[in-house]
Specification:
Elements: H1 3-24, H2 28-33, H3 40-57, H4 65-93
Helix pairs in contact: 1-3, 3-4
């Protein structure tokens, strides 16, 4: 597979992964508590995202375990805080 095809395939899989994690697997508890900082719902939702991202990133040959860990940790932190911020914005602005 060419590098361009690999990247496009990974992007498509990551979009599908995101839809699955946000719409099919997200529980009502996770949705309802993402706006409470530190609540288990937001943490487990973000953890689900990185668990589903890991297999996609394994498509990239040569990606070291330490780099994979850094990418997944960054996704966890960013996803958690973006969801929390979105919930805060919705609560403040309707």
């Amino acid at each position: 597979m060419s590098e361009a095809n690999l990247i496009l395939t990974a992007l498509a899989l990551l979009l599908i992964k995101h839809a699955v994690a946000d719409f099919l697997l997200q529980t009502a508890y996770q949705r309802e508590t993402k706006g409470i900082y530190g609540a288990l719902g937001g943490l487990t939702h973000s953890a689900m995202h990185i668990l589903l991202t890991a297999p996609v990133l394994l498509l990239f040959p040569g990606l070291s375990p330490s780099r994979l860990a850094v990418i997944l940790a960054a996704e966890f932190v960013l996803h958690y805080h973006l969801d929390w911020l979105k919930d805060q914005a919705v609560k403040r602005n309707g």
